[in-house]
Inverse folding.
């Protein structure tokens, strides 16, 4: 979240899109309700199906799964054509005035694609700004130049009129008009609107562009950085924010530093290519500090190695290669991965084409599952999984883990608050907390490398791991998460004088502004620097004072960065430092003390002396984002599997998504790979066999892949069975009655899965391109283990990912549904 | 001990069922063996082991969909018919807090309360030969804690506080949303109040008695006849006989006044 949970209460309009917040983030409604009760805020919900969120919304509008960019594009067009933008904000804080290369062409000119497309990739040479003699982007603050971002954007969105948009989404033009009017009414400086989104937005082949479209809309309305505004990702698990910050991902290191590439063989080269440069004195260009953060991280990993040596220890990824979930599945299926750790993860249920996943697991030599219960993944070799155990050679280890109440540590919530949690009770039996398990593993590995040598032992042998000591019994005793927290914050490794003050070796680094690029400080994550001081672990704080009355609660736990509760808050004030909204200021400039008051400001510089968006090299938020793989403006494409032709251009699906089905064509490979990658693309003869749009989602009663909730009697009582939801109209066409068993099939799984049918008014058919289009939805919580069991939804989902992130497409694909004969 | 009220603001319910689970947890009630119910409502009804549940009502209105979620549990009547009907001293008691509590030690399993309740709340277990129902978490509220369901509610739908304060809050909220407070009969007070949004007709919802009243049979029985029946006739038999005397053999009445629950 750019903002935080409490801040939702400051919104004048709340739009929940790509999220069923009432159901999956129940606590958010405490603040949604407060905004409505105290401010008279309006709640808009946009969803293919009428959900528990829709039930409480003031305005509910429908779109079919896969048409989000058209919906938001329509709203952006409405704002641009009706003068519903916050002009001062747009001119001063965004790149609207930047001039773009005159050779740049967009979908309006090139029928759906941007300039530079060749061989399913964009050559981005025209996606750049015109530069002045100092190397800064040229600007036209009048926004009249035909090559300025604002004019290009106007042209781009002119095609997204309400009529066209509704033809694409299947929505009702009158309802859209009402919602567009309501939402864009927050372009007034004193008003703000917030967007709450989740996986319904991101799990698409253009998921990143969905979120980009929210950013564009919010920037035009002046809704970023302000109270009650922002774009707020509701994290699907309590600590997903923390796991992202600490880089449980392949493409980043802790603190969103880049994973080194194979082409970057020296630390010097890595740092040079990772550190942006700005020649504009008004630009804070905060990432200019990159070398301080990367040096401190290397020192946290390898205390005694110099930076160049430490860097040589880091794994490098092949340039342009992706190592996320889908490629891991693919590599496993090829038999190229020998061993796998599944730590609190259940890919046999949770990953796309999970049938393929389970078969790929059988190609491993060994699998370690660390979880509270025996998951489908840990038992993929058992009879319940529908396989013959004697035919599987994978050696499986199941390590019982401690639940959150049974261990100590921090949890970073969606609002970036790192909150300390204390252990309430011991874990049962032999269950151990994660820190214990990994610590023992590290010591075992160190011991083996020391004894046996092997290839490149130094990175393991030199790895700093001093959170616990090995006991006489050969087991690790009491690894201490508070020691880990200290290292994440970082401390001085030698005495260092900074601005006339001497910091002794061992002292905590007060904040990331004090981190050094010469190896004299360590910090496991620069963003968390300031979370632990010499006297306290700020994540443990539970102060409830809120002197400004704006809901910051700075003494309650700690949030990154430097306890700033609303990020980009320099954009919450005008050029003189006066808050846009007087009744809900975030920061304000005190002329007497020459200081910012309120929230922790995005840098202490006086108003107007630095650009608002300090993390970007040019200091202006991007309406035009050349860093994206699939276009600097969000453009509507159909999902890979769609019944509908793209009504906006001749480019049917995103031109740059990686097609696994094409990649394996003509290769001698396991047939399961072909099957898992198969797609029922528009125009293929298979299209008529799978006429129904399907999406997957969760209910509040179960948790993710279900391994934590399907074992709990009280939750099993509430939702005991796998079901799909479908409309009364579809049910009638198919002769399905409420409570019947149905079989759902996709091109990847002709045999299909069986589930109960919930026939409901909450799903209704759409009319798209003049034709009736049915949509159904299904839960993805079920599997074959636990007190309550059911079919695995992901046995039907496609092996296709977003062009930028490779996040799997779980939300829009094609199926057929038929009554299961009994 | 002050009198309390539990306020249920239906405009804020998201049907998350945290209340339903919290009730089971605090009261140590076992999970029922359930199956697919065709709706999210599960278990489908209150029972000896399920003292509260969210009821989901789905209907069409003005071409749109309405989906109402309602926390359903004991209303804790100020003048409780169940207590009035109960022949076993101490089995059902109205406390100073307003909570109507049952004590299984004294319950004789006669089901008089089941028949008497205008809201169809107490549930009988054949196995245990006793009844059970929501106690407003008497064991929590007398310790200064809100009931478990209120404690778990994330949205502010369930609130708990001193009687006068909650009544004021209910009417203020109802005015603000253009809704109504239920039950609205000034002669029939309860220690549970609902704020009902304007667009809902009570008759559209499951398991609601739009106009609760003390069943007249109970009044007759308790105030006039009970002293005599105690001379020798068993309580259950007496009640049944009396019922027969007044109402005759059971038949579906065409004109049951206000949906009055008369068994």
């Amino acid at each position: 979240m750019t903002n935080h949970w409490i801040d939702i209460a400051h919104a004048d309009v709340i739009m929940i899109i790509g999220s069923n917040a009432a159901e999956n983030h129940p606590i958010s409604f405490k603040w949604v309700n407060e905004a409505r009760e105290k401010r008279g805020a309006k709640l808009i919900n946009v969803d293919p199906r009428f959900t528990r969120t829709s039930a409480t919304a003031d305005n509910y509008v429908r779109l079919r799964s896969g048409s989000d960019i058209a919906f938001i594009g329509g709203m952006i067009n409405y704002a641009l054509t009706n003068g519903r933008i916050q002009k001062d904000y747009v001119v001063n804080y965004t790149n609207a005035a930047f001039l773009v290369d005159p050779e740049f062409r967009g979908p309006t000119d090139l029928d759906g694609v941007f300039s530079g497309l060749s061989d399913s990739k964009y050559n981005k040479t025209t996606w750049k700004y015109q530069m002045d003699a100092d190397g800064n982007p040229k600007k036209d603050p009048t926004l009249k130049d035909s090559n300025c971002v604002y004019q290009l954007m106007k042209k781009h969105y002119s095609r997204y009129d309400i009529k066209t948009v509704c033809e694409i989404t299947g929505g009702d033009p009158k309802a859209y008009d009402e919602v567009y009017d309501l939402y864009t009414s927050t372009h007034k400086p004193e008003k703000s609107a917030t967007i709450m989104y989740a996986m319904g937005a991101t799990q698409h082949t253009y998921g990143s562009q969905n979120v980009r479209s929210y950013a564009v809309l919010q920037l035009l309305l002046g809704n970023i950085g302000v109270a009650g505004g922002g774009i707020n990702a509701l994290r699907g698990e309590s600590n997903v924010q923390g796991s992202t910050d600490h880089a449980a991902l392949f493409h980043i290191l802790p603190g969103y530093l880049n994973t080194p590439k194979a082409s970057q063989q020296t630390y010097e080269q890595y740092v040079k290519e990772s550190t942006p440069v700005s020649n504009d004195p008004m630009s804070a260009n905060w990432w200019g500090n990159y070398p301080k953060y990367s040096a401190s991280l290397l020192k946290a990993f390898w205390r005694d190695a110099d930076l160049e040596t430490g860097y040589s220890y880091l794994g490098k990824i092949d340039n342009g290669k992706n190592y996320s979930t889908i490629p891991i599945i693919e590599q496993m299926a090829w038999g190229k991965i020998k061993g796998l750790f599944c730590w609190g993860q259940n890919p046999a249920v949770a990953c796309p084409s999970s049938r393929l996943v389970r078969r790929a697991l059988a190609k491993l030599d060994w699998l370690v599952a660390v979880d509270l219960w025996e998951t489908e993944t840990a038992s993929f070799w058992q009879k319940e999984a529908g396989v013959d155990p004697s035919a599987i050679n994978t050696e499986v280890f199941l390590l019982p883990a401690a639940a959150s109440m049974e261990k100590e540590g921090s949890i970073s919530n969606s609002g970036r608050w790192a909150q300390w949690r204390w252990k309430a009770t011991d874990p049962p039996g032999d269950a151990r907390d994660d820190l214990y398990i990994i610590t023992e593993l590290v010591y075992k590995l160190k011991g083996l490398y020391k004894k046996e040598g092997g290839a490149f032992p130094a990175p393991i042998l030199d790895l700093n791991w001093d959170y616990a000591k090995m006991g006489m019994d050969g087991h690790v005793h009491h690894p201490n998460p508070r020691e880990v927290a200290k290292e994440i914050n970082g401390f001085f490794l030698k005495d260092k004088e900074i601005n006339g003050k001497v910091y002794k070796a061992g002292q905590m680094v007060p904040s990331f502004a004090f981190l050094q690029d010469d190896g004299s400080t360590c910090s496991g994550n620069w963003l968390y620097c300031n979370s632990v001081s010499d006297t306290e672990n700020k994540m443990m704080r539970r102060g409830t004072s809120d002197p400004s009355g704006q809901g910051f609660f700075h003494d309650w736990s700690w949030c990154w960065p430097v306890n700033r509760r609303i990020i980009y808050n320099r954009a919450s004030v005008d050029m003189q430092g006066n808050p846009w909204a007087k009744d809900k200021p975030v920061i304000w400039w005190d002329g007497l003390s020459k200081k910012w008051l309120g929230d922790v400001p995005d840098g202490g510089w006086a108003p107007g002396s630095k650009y608002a968006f300090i993390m970007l090299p040019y200091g202006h938020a991007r309406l035009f984002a050349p860093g994206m793989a699939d276009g600097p403006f969000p453009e509507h494409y159909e999902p890979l599997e769609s019944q509908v032709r793209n009504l906006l251009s001749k480019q049917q699906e995103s031109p740059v998504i990686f097609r696994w089905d094409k990649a394996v064509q003509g290769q001698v490979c396991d047939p399961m790979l072909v099957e898992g990658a198969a797609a029922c693309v528009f125009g293929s003869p298979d299209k008529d066999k799978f006429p129904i749009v399907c999406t997957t989602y969760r209910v509040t009663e179960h948790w993710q892949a279900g391994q934590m909730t399907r074992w709990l009697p009280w939750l099993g009582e509430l939702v005991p069975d796998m079901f799909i939801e479908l409309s009364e109209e579809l049910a009638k066409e198919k002769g399905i009655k409420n409570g019947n068993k149905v079989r759902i099939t996709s091109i990847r799984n002709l045999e299909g899965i069986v589930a109960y049918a919930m026939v409901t008014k909450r799903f209704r058919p759409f009319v798209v391109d003049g034709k009736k289009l049915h949509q159904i939805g299904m839960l993805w919580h079920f599997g074959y283990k636990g007190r309550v069991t059911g079919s695995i939804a992901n046995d039907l989902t496609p092996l296709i990912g977003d062009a930028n992130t490779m996040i799997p497409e779980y939300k829009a694909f094609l199926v057929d549904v038929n009554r299961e004969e009994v | 001990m002050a009198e309390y009220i539990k306020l249920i603001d239906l405009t804020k319910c998201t049907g998350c069922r945290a209340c339903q689970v919290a009730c089971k947890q605090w009261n140590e009630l076992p999970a029922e063996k359930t199956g697919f119910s065709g709706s999210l409502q599960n278990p489908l009804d209150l029972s000896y082991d399920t003292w509260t549940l969210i009821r989901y009502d789905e209907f069409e209105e003005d071409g749109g969909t309405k989906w109402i979620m309602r926390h359903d549990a004991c209303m804790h009547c100020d003048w409780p018919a169940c207590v009035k009907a109960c022949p076993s001293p101490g089995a059902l008691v109205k406390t100073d807090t307003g909570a109507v509590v049952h004590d299984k030690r004294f319950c004789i399993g006669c089901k008089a309360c089941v028949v008497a309740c205008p809201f169809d709340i107490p549930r009988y277990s054949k196995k245990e030969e006793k009844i059970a129902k929501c106690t407003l978490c008497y064991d929590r509220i007398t310790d200064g804690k809100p009931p478990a369901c209120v404690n778990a509610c994330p949205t502010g739908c369930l609130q708990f506080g001193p009687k006068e304060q909650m009544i004021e809050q209910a009417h203020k909220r109802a005015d603000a949303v253009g809704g109504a407070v239920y039950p609205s009969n000034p002669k029939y007070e309860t220690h549970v109040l609902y704020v009902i949004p304007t667009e809902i007709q009570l008759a559209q919802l499951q398991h609601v008695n739009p106009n609760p009243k003390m069943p007249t049979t109970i009044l007759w029985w308790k105030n006039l006849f009970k002293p005599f029946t105690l001379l020798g006739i068993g309580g259950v038999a007496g009640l049944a006989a009396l019922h027969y005397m007044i109402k005759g053999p059971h038949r579906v009445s065409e004109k049951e006044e206000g949906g009055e629950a008369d068994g």
In short: Residues 163-177 of chain B form the longest helix (15 residues). The interface with chain A takes residues 11-18, 20-21, 24-25, 30-40, 42-43, 58-60, 64-69, 154-156, 176 of chain B (CB under 8 Å). Helices of chain B lie at 18-26, 81-85, 112-116, 138-141, 148-152, 163-177, 216-229, 235-247.
